[in-house]
Amino acid sequence: MVNEPGKLAGAHRAREKERVAGQFAVPQREEEENYESLLDQYGARKFAEGEVMKGMVLKITDTDVIVDIGYKSEGVIPVTQFIDPSGQLTIKVGDVIDVLLEDTEDMEGHIVLSKEKAEKVKVWEEVEKAYNENRIIRGRVVERIKGGLSVDIGVRAFLPGSQIDVRPVKNLDAFRGKEIECRVIKLNRKRGNIVLSRKLVLENEQARKKSLHTGSSQGRCRSSRHREKHYRLRGIRRLGRHRWTAPCDGPVLGPRQSSV
Length: 260
Description:
With 260 residues, the chain is of the alpha+beta class. Among the domains are: 52-116, CATH 2.40.50.140; 134-235, CATH 2.40.50.140. Helices cover 34% and strands 27% of the residues. It contains 4 helices and 12 strands; from the N terminus they run ααβββββαβββββαββ. The chain has helices spanning 5-24, 28-41, 115-133, 199-233, and strands at residues 52-60, 64-68, 75-78, 96-103, 111-114, 136-145, 148-152, 156-160, 179-188, 193-197, 237-238, 244-245. A 5-stranded mixed barrel has the order 1-2-3-5-4. It is elongated.
């Protein structure tokens, strides 16, 4: 076998290079985890359209409110969504608010957010909770519609005429603008339908009062019977509804008899 120093030296250098590279190599799994961490750090995580999240108000202009939700670009919401009925702005820079992601990018590269839709999502969650737990909710009657009343409980709900009161109601317009208590009896989120009942609330309240009255009456009757039994044991005779007389030690006399 012929000794070839050049080839041996080259092979040795290649092995040494692989050894050194192995010492500083980063495992593939660890490299992937680091990359995902960097993506999260720079706000590159996935945002789902329709998701409700928290955001901080960065800037308020005449037309828009700029909100940071941790994405690569800021979100934009029309300022009109933050104006109350009196025309006052309800937020300020630095406020943290709930927003719904409508679109990840518009024509100008901003993400499109909505405060109103986020509120509706939360209202639906509360309505579903009240329905499942059989709780009472409050709402304001908006107007009379076919078959009943339209009630604002954060979203529009339907109160059928047969569920307004325990007795038939002739003048539905009298309820317009009133705050009422109801229970949710039907719910379909996909179709956006909510059916209410005020009648159930009134019936439950009547039953509660009747139960309290019955218990109080029974207590009074038991107390009266106990008092009368006590008097009889002591030999006290009843002369009227509230008059009692104690027995005397002498003989009982007739109406024409005298003690003398």
